[in-house]
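2024-03-11 09:14:02 INFO receiving multi-entity request
2024-03-11 09:14:02 INFO entity count = four
2024-03-11 09:14:03 INFO echoing inputs for audit
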Amino acid sequence: MSNGTNGVWVIGALGDIATTLFVGTAALRRGLVSRAGLVAETAPISDLGLPPLESLRFGGIDIALGSARDSAEQVYRGSRTYSREILDAVLPDLADVDRNLVLDPGLAWNVLSPSRDLPPLAELAERMRACLRDFAASTGAEHVVVVNLASSGPNPDLAAAHRHLAEFETALDADRKNLISPSMAWAYAAFREGCSHVNFTPNLGADIPALRELAEREGLPFCGNDGKTGETLLKTVLAPMFLWRNLRILSWEGTNLLGNNDGRALHDADNRKAKIGNKAAVLESILGYPAHSGVNIDYVPSLGDWKTAWDLIHFQGFLDVPMQMQFTWQGCDSILAAPLVLDLVRLTRFAAGVGERGPLRHLAGFFKHPIGVSEHAFPAQVRMLLDYVERHRAAPRREG
Amino acid sequence: MSNGTNGVWVIGALGDIATTLFVGTAALRRGLVSRAGLVAETAPISDLGLPPLESLRFGGIDIALGSARDSAEQVYRGSRTYSREILDAVLPDLADVDRNLVLDPGLAWNVLSPSRDLPPLAELAERMRACLRDFAASTGAEHVVVVNLASSGPNPDLAAAHRHLAEFETALDADRKNLISPSMAWAYAAFREGCSHVNFTPNLGADIPALRELAEREGLPFCGNDGKTGETLLKTVLAPMFLWRNLRILSWEGTNLLGNNDGRALHDADNRKAKIGNKAAVLESILGYPAHSGVNIDYVPSLGDWKTAWDLIHFQGFLDVPMQMQFTWQGCDSILAAPLVLDLVRLTRFAAGVGERGPLRHLAGFFKHPIGVSEHAFPAQVRMLLDYVERHRAAPRREG
Amino acid sequence: MSNGTNGVWVIGALGDIATTLFVGTAALRRGLVSRAGLVAETAPISDLGLPPLESLRFGGIDIALGSARDSAEQVYRGSRTYSREILDAVLPDLADVDRNLVLDPGLAWNVLSPSRDLPPLAELAERMRACLRDFAASTGAEHVVVVNLASSGPNPDLAAAHRHLAEFETALDADRKNLISPSMAWAYAAFREGCSHVNFTPNLGADIPALRELAEREGLPFCGNDGKTGETLLKTVLAPMFLWRNLRILSWEGTNLLGNNDGRALHDADNRKAKIGNKAAVLESILGYPAHSGVNIDYVPSLGDWKTAWDLIHFQGFLDVPMQMQFTWQGCDSILAAPLVLDLVRLTRFAAGVGERGPLRHLAGFFKHPIGVSEHAFPAQVRMLLDYVERHRAAPRREG
Amino acid sequence: MSNGTNGVWVIGALGDIATTLFVGTAALRRGLVSRAGLVAETAPISDLGLPPLESLRFGGIDIALGSARDSAEQVYRGSRTYSREILDAVLPDLADVDRNLVLDPGLAWNVLSPSRDLPPLAELAERMRACLRDFAASTGAEHVVVVNLASSGPNPDLAAAHRHLAEFETALDADRKNLISPSMAWAYAAFREGCSHVNFTPNLGADIPALRELAEREGLPFCGNDGKTGETLLKTVLAPMFLWRNLRILSWEGTNLLGNNDGRALHDADNRKAKIGNKAAVLESILGYPAHSGVNIDYVPSLGDWKTAWDLIHFQGFLDVPMQMQFTWQGCDSILAAPLVLDLVRLTRFAAGVGERGPLRHLAGFFKHPIGVSEHAFPAQVRMLLDYVERHRAAPRREG
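2024-03-11 09:21:47 INFO inference complete, emitting structure
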């Protein structure tokens, strides 16, 4: 029996973004903070009738030991993004997350060098599915959205195993851990358990034909990849201006400094490959011509969760005169990301409720590499969402 | 008989923007430079069938002594925005501008303290009209676009004289130089002589009901005010992003440093009042709520035409966390402005040709204070122009 | 009888800097924070044998109502410069400051428009002296350093009354509140009561011949004016580099944004006159030639105590090529200022102990406008202090 | 017989810095530009009696084909650092450089993978020496300063061959091109031919014990390595400020973007190793404690000779509060470097004249990695030069 609860299963549940998501949602419910940062709370999106914050219950998995409450203390101490007062107020609420938390270091592997000590893939996938079944059962949730917030890892090269569901499942049974990454296995588990899926990471997740086939077969919606929170957001806001003013980009160079766990993971060249690719690709896509572009990501521990990006944009105007723009973006990574995750959870749950299946193209503006969408210009992406809202405000709602 | 020539009459013809306009158009005709910076040369606007560059002939007036050729040398020496080689190549072409140049220090006055030595307004207005008649006659132009590129000056407070054409003409006959600014007199002269009008300055020009009445009576189009070239352009590109992401602007502070003649004029608080007002107003209009905002304009002679702007944007995200963005814009003022003027001339000439009258709303994106338009968000303004292009590409063209 | 206590009497005791001074000193004594920011704790200055932190007792006066404990809460809430945990730990210690706090709105006036309701100057000066006597008596301090941390206010134009002590006292008796500012009256009171004096504000304070005469007659040391904490510090560090490399400064433009009480006070043009003068003067003094230089100070409430400065340095190198440097300084005003105040208190107390009198020239590096010193280059000022330390480490110490 | 001529032999004579050196010296002699950028022209250094600009004659070698005149045209077209007018005026003067130019692609090799087609080292070294003899003979120079301005290349790991001259010459005879880099061979050739030596590159050059032994035996002075022109200069100016104010550096991250030939060479990780090492080492040396520090160097062709550096300095102040400083340095690499090379040539020639031998420690301030000096703080390095000037102004001069 449905109790009106919407389950949110978080992969990477002890990370900075997940922690900020739990703390922030609790603080919002208690009325301690404003709704700033939440796209879903602005008109006309707020008219859609999205699932209320109060309907959400969180659970999840992490490969590290700990608890949501401990993580909340650590984020507080490391980055001071919320105050002691807020932390103290919401700590009791985090106990509910901790009740639905699974700590399992075995549910992650590196496709470039999978450990030989792990059980076979099929067993791991079943463990993932069991997590989701248990979570649904214990919370009584009528629907579960699986949200991937894990660290960036290497993606496998695309192969036959990714093309069709049958081939994917064959590779799964054959324990091909070098072909099937943890993010893919989680997406697979989600769809097999009737869950919709949000992938906020640069890991491939559901973005392969085989899993899209599965999602469509099961009638489930999904979205991703790689949340667009800072430097890339600005790129997709500014590049259209240069294009429209016919100011030719000569070079666009970016440096990203960050000191959180994500920064530590991205310090590894294999791990940051997908993210740098996503960051670089948007520019040429928007401009329509190749422009010299570089992206550095450096790990600077002292910055903690405060990601600082500096971009230099060298462009050419009338009479071929070169000019420059620079920007510095000093944002707190988790604070930028967590509300978007909350938006995506609610919008994906809504989509599941109205029977949408496959990639949710109207959510392109949330991602660096929107699945199934080649439009990267932010204003155009905003319009895609507004058009969607326009259609769904009018339409009668079909509950899932 | 029409010879296919389109006249462009420039007020402030020896200024930096006008000089760059003349040099740049000549360099383009000679194939020395790319079309960078010209909006009208990008698809789909280039499909409209705008008047070709070759059809334009320039003339104009300045209150200083000099020649277009001398000004071209001065801009070269002061700001090096074009090379000696380009300058040498186009100097002969500037001789044609010089043939159509009127130097008349008497055709400008300050509404705050008009000189008593000047002839009455009616006589000055007649001198302006005579300039336009002579230019049309000597060039055989089928249509003349009057472009205001004069220095910023104080605007009169709005009064009854600005409300209706009859009252305006009464004030003109009564020699009320404190009510009718030079930019208004030029707009009046333009419309009376059948010219369309582009006002790139923060001076009020045609933006009063009385002159709009005249333009509509005469069936003439016009656009303005205050070209949107740098810091304000960025504001109207970035503010929509903050709005849509529900990131609340706490403060938006801007500092503009420039060293050209415009900078010298704006050094005077009376002169910069309109410009600062235009720069500040866009923010609240886009955001829909009041945000602390300051704009400094400082005269820094050594920068010459290189305008440097620094903006600090202080905003609040999830959990009410304050974050920051800064940008520096190092653009050459004339290089940014001149191609827009060329675009506006061609688009206004086109509009006159298809029989449009009154303010050209689809050109809002070119201006800090678009006449008759309250939309300041740049992406929305771009869409207004694209919609216009869509309508006019299909429609059969009615020549003026 | 001396109990080894050194009194520190703070004018503006409820302001942000004073509050941070009290909180920080308490946190240091409790071992909660490192010694970062304290010049006096670095070698070789730490070898001088300065009065220990434990020997200091604070008291002071403010014209607003409140308490050190309330101010500590407010600074915490407004700028989050210290954590809740630190605040909770030191709140009991602030009770001692509150015991020695005088709240007296009558002890401040504006020299440009002194209120007619105030008692005569002589009475006010006597009230100031009584404060100091009471503080010394109640704490048993063997010496009191009077520290001015009040808001910036207008300085009187220099006049005969400032030239000699006799004339000063005549003006005092004649109640010339337009000639004698609060900062002068406090310096006078300090010297008459045998106290040494530190003026961290741009208010003139003891920097007039009349009060210097008094300090020397009484054998008392003093230092000031206007603490050098951020943008000006950088100017005096960078300008010598440009000078030595023979890179000619064309323009040096600075914008300072701040949102604390000091920012509010400086929003008033009269109040910021002295500070802007101090900020601008250092450049020409270091370079030896006049360079175009502008300084803006803008009040941006949302920044709180976080002062953000942006400077553009336009300079000319070989072949007269113009180049640029920009910097952004994002410092917390009180956090930068408070440790310098603590340094100055200890160094001034030390100087009093070894019998120095008059302006303390070796402390020039702490001030934008060092009294009695024309050297502004920071490296040279550092050397002055190091030379002083060298002399005093060797010399036998004479206790006051 | 001496004709008062001082020879300057430039390795890398067609590069951007060398070209700017030739153009700039000619423009100075013709009085076309100011003395900006020249340290040697500022008091008191100008009192030393340095060899006049008029006494210098330039020659040199490059491994590319071309001429000084062609390079001057290319630099003009690529970076516009000097005007067409200056270029036209000095082109005739560059003919003299071209007369003394040797183009020899064989005089460079990569120590990591020396080509097998090259003649043996002993023969190459003899070719270098012959160049110098020919240059001295043809110009009649009384002394030749050999200046290394070649591209950055990999340095060999230090080995026994670098320890003593005898071992070095054994390796030379044994054709060990993986041990003896071109910069070492040139330093060797210089000293064997009685020339003094300036190494402006990060290549090791004379900075090995074996060559120091040779220089001292021959009574010749030398200086290097790696000219300090931009980001590192600022580091050594700013780091002492943080040190002295006891503001603890948490992280200091730098990004360098450049598009000239040097940038292209540094794009190769092997080539940039030495330079990055030099840039990073200064910080810890000045601070006295390890601070997280990163340096990126990226090749951005469109920037040409305009090197743009952005540094983020994260530091901790009172109450352990983290704060930030950022700077952007937009300098033209050759314009910053060339005058320092001219200074070094004159100061090294002076040193040779007064009989100094070995590394010239007083020139430490010119270099990122000053040979024989551990002091990196710029103010202290300035003092070293000023002390030297003080000693030599008084001393009677002994001509070489």
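2024-03-11 09:21:48 INFO post-check: The first strand of chain C starts at residue 6 and ends at 11.
2024-03-11 09:21:48 INFO post-check: Chain C touches chain D through 51 residues (CB under 8 Å).
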